[in-house]
Structure formats: C-alpha cells, structure tokens
Predict the 3D structure of the following.
Amino acid sequence: MGKIKVTKVRSAINRPKSQKLTLEALGLRKMNQSNEFDDTPAVRGLIAKVSHLVKVEE
C-alpha cells in the first residue's frame, strides 16, 4: 500500500458545505497545508470529491 500526499491549493470560500467538510476530513484547513495518507479507495473517493481544490503527489 502506497502513500499519497495531498496539498490544499485553492480556497474553500464559496464552495458547497460538503466540499468544505471533505477538506476538513482530510485535515486541510489552511492554504498550502499538506497531509499524507495511505492509498485506499476511501481516501481516493474523498480526493475525487475535491480534486479541483487539492494537488495530489504519490
């Protein structure tokens, strides 16, 4: 199982509440904040929901 590094690169202002909550679930609150996760289908689903707001590195 690999690791994924997720970085918030765009603001959540004027986004639906579900996208804001998804970013918070990923632990991303501030701009350019990063978090590392195991590569699982659940995490991939969260990332897909906010893919336009984050940058993903494997």
